[in-house]
Automatic annotation (TrEMBL):
Organism field: Leifsonia shinshuensis
InterPro entries registered for this protein in UniProt: TAT_signal (IPR006311)
Transmembrane segments: 33-55
Keywords: Membrane, Transmembrane, Transmembrane helix
Lineage: superkingdom: Bacteria
Protein name: Uncharacterized protein
Length: 234
């Protein structure tokens, strides 16, 4: 089998990830001026990031035998949008908004959600209230799927809190509106490439953790995406 196309895609993904990191560094400098400095919030949504991350080492899950071709966005993207009331969502997660990103704990995870072979964009701005210039210890800056945990205290944060801030349901056999056995769908969760059979809400967020949630037709064999290639500096 010729692995050249796969290597080319991985190289392209790594190059785009490096560009993503440079963009993030520029945004971080602007945020330091913004949070606590009264400067207008820098734009957080980055056009085209979804495609770059989806191509990152085949970061959408392989659905064996499905014949589905992943696209850059879900056909029901609006259903996965970040909630308008950021602070209410953060309170639901049991957290409080901050005036600046915390520094006692600073780690990152990568999250993917795939439905019938099509990746869902994890939206930018989860946990960030631009109008009030406030930010949650758990947040996203773009649509890369990278979750930022930047807390003023060292504590355990969970995947359930991420989904509460996102405004999406998560539980055993459920993600968003998809549930095991409903409409012939099955929800599978992978953590660092291994099937997770417990309640996904309880998954503790760890540094450089890969969390992948795959919705597929019941009976379809699913496998986890390739490990995420982290940009330098994360």
């Amino acid at each position: 089998m010729n692995d050249t196309p796969k290597r080319d895609r991985r190289l392209e993904a790594q190059q785009r990830a490096a560009e993503l990191r440079r963009q993030e560094q520029r945004r971080a400098r602007r945020r330091r001026l913004l949070i606590g400095g009264g400067v207008a919030v820098a734009a957080l949504a980055v056009a085209g990031i979804v495609t770059a991350v989806v191509l990152n080492g085949a970061s959408s899950a392989t659905v064996a035998g499905s014949g589905a071709t992943p696209s850059a966005t879900s056909s029901a993207a609006a259903d996965w949008a970040a909630p308008a009331d950021v602070e209410a969502a953060v309170r639901t997660a049991g957290l409080q908004m901050l005036t600046a990103e915390g520094t006692a704990l600073h780690i990152h995870q990568h999250l993917t959600v795939t439905v019938d072979g099509r990746p869902v964009a994890v939206p930018a701005g989860i946990g960030i209230d631009e109008a009030q210039q406030r930010i949650s210890p758990i947040h996203t800056h773009d649509e890369s799927g990278i979750i930022h945990v930047e807390s003023p205290e060292v504590r355990t944060f969970t995947l359930g809190q991420v989904f509460d801030e996102w405004g999406q349901k998560l539980g055993t056999g459920q993600v968003g509106t998809y549930r095991n056995g409903v409409d012939g769908q099955t929800v599978t969760v992978f953590v660092d490439g291994k099937t997770y059979t417990g309640d996904p809400r309880t998954i503790a967020l760890a540094s450089h953790e890969d969390i992948d949630i795959v919705v597929a037709k019941t009976g379809t064999t699913v496998s986890p995406p390739a490990a995420f290639s982290w940009p330098a500096g994360y």
